[in-house]
């Protein structure tokens, strides 16, 4: 009889600190490799920033709300012989989103490439053809970028000198900014906004984000926008349930306050009072917070100066609103944009102030899904990117809340102010306190030229046997990227274990 090969991590215990999407992903991979995996999460729900608020029949996704790059989810679940449909159902959105400009103009972006082409042409002669050219370049960038930069983990500068990477130079215009790239195709400022708005998912600006991320335009216009019924938290629940079926143990409401030791003998301090042991540790806490709160000085990922020079992605002012009545003309996804959005980016990246002319996003999932709000009501989330580290005291928040709701009434034509039956909010302080996000960033390290690819923190960091996962490491920000980050971290663990076994074998 042929003996079944031993799982590569059989006999190893792994503690995953933090149950964000990256931590949940890594836990699944490592458990599938035979490890005994325990996930520690200080909040009462798994998911981290991708959480859920449930109140009086309303359900709100607290963080991510766009389901993009469906093949990444299919690839993840496929690794375990599953499909996304085993855990949640998807709806293709049409229209994908609606844009309201503050000059009174509005545009509905349909799930039809020819219709989008016609929309571009209506703003600028020749822009339809330019859109086709831009999108073809974005498709090439997406396919090569995913293959050679995202699914392939390039964590060292020398990895960028790989022949495959050098061959990608034409398709991956790394040195130009996104705005410099887009202006080669269209002149009209509104069309440039339509091609650059996806940077909100990366927490960047068109003026500091590499043109590599034009690949997201293909994710939008080429692959389409979907919605998991029940909200994005349905995806989180799918990750949790998959992990449970693989043997992962989830311990919510359990805070890790310190990590000491080395490979094979880690000690985790829990709630400041009791300890747990593990052979390996995977950290889904932001690395700057891990250095500050978990690791001893000699074990830290970076010195203090390294974090002081970091550029963090924006935080966000969020309103979670349960609304009586309809919310027309909002679509499932809507954007309210000033015709000149430079002031908002300056407020985030240069001046650190509340924006005078805010550009913001409105999510109304109840337009598609009647399970997230009581009958006759709607669920609405308003997200305004703001500067990390911004002072967000109660008085400042109250002023900004009133301003945004008035702005929404004026420019989107929907007045919610007298129909709010449930209201919650979050801002810089909550991201810092609930999720240990440095400076209250909502997303992590921004994707600037100096913080892309191998210039982000490595998956191998800190003491031997300690690994990082999540939006601050490669490949970066966003739910799909954090799923892939979990795969990369698991592969690093697997590779190190193989090397260790080989060394022990040779020593014997």
UniProtKB/TrEMBL annotation:
Residues 22-493 form the Amine oxidase domain. GO terms for molecular function: oxidoreductase activity. It comes from the Archaea. Gene3D superfamilies: FAD/NAD(P)-binding domain (3.50.50.60). Pathway: Carotenoid biosynthesis. It comes from Halobaculum saliterrae. The lineage of its organism: Archaea, Methanobacteriati, Methanobacteriota, Stenosarchaea group, Halobacteria. InterPro entries: Amino_oxidase (IPR002937), Carotenoid/retinoid_OxRdtase (IPR014105), FAD/NAD-bd_sf (IPR036188). The gene is crtI. One of its GO terms (biological process) is carotenoid biosynthetic process. This is Phytoene desaturase. Keywords: Carotenoid biosynthesis, Oxidoreductase.
């Amino acid at each position: 009889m042929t003996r079944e090969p031993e799982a590569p991590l059989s006999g190893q215990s792994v503690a995953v600190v933090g149950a964000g999407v990256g931590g949940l992903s890594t836990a699944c991979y490592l458990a599938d490799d035979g490890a005994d995996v325990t996930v520690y999460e200080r909040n009462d729900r798994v998911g981290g920033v991708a959480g859920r608020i449930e109140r009086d029949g309303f359900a709100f996704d607290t963080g991510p709300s766009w389901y993009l790059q469906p093949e990444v989810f299919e690839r993840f679940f496929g690794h375990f012989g599953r499909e996304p449909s085993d855990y949640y159902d998807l709806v293709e959105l049409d229209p994908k989103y609606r844009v309201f400009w503050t000059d009174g103009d509005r545009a509905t972006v349909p799930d039809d490439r020819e219709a989008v082409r016609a929309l571009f042409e209506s703003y600028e002669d020749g822009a339809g053809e330019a859109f086709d050219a831009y999108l073809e370049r974005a498709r090439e960038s997406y396919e090569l970028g995913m293959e050679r930069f995202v699914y392939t983990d390039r964590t060292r500068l020398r990895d960028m000198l790989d022949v495959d990477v050098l061959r990608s130079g034409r398709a991956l215009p790394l040195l130009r900014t996104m705005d410099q790239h887009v202006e080669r195709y269209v002149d009209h400022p509104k069309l440039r906004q339509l091609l650059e708005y996806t940077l909100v998912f990366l927490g960047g600006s068109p003026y500091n984000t590499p043109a590599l991320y034009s690949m997201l335009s293909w994710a939008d216009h080429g692959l389409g926008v979907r919605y998991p019924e029940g909200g994005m938290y349905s995806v989180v629940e799918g990750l949790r349930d998959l992990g449970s079926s693989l043997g992962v143990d989830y311990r919510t409401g359990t805070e890790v306050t310190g990590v000491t030791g080395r490979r094979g003998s880690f000690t985790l301090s829990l709630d400041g009072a009791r300890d747990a042991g593990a052979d390996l540790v995977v950290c889904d806490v932001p690395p700057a917070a891990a250095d500050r709160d978990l690791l001893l000085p000699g074990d830290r990922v970076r010195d203090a100066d390294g974090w002081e020079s970091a550029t963090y992605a924006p935080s966000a002012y969020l309103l979670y609103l349960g609304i009586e009545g309809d919310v027309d003309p909002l679509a499932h996804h809507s954007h309210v944009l000033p015709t000149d959005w430079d002031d908002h980016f300056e407020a985030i990246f240069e001046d650190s102030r509340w924006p005078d002319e805010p550009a913001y996003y409105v999510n109304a999932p109840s337009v598609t899904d009647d399970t997230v709000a009581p009958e006759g009501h709607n669920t609405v989330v308003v997200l305004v990117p703001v500067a990390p580290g911004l002072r967000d005291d109660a008085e400042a928040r109250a002023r900004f809340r009133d301003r945004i709701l008035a702005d929404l009434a004026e420019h989107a034509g929907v007045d919610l102010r007298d129909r709010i039956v449930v209201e919650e909010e979050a801002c810089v302080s909550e991201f810092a306190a609930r999720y240990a996000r440095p400076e209250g960033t909502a997303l992590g390290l921004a994707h600037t030229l100096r913080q892309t690819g191998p210039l982000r923190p490595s998956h191998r960091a800190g003491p031997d046997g300690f690994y990082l996962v999540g939006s601050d490491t490669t490949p970066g920000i966003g739910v799909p990227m954090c799923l892939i980050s979990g795969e990369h971290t698991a592969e690093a663990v697997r590779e190190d274990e193989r090397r260790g076994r080989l060394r022990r074998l040779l020593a014997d």
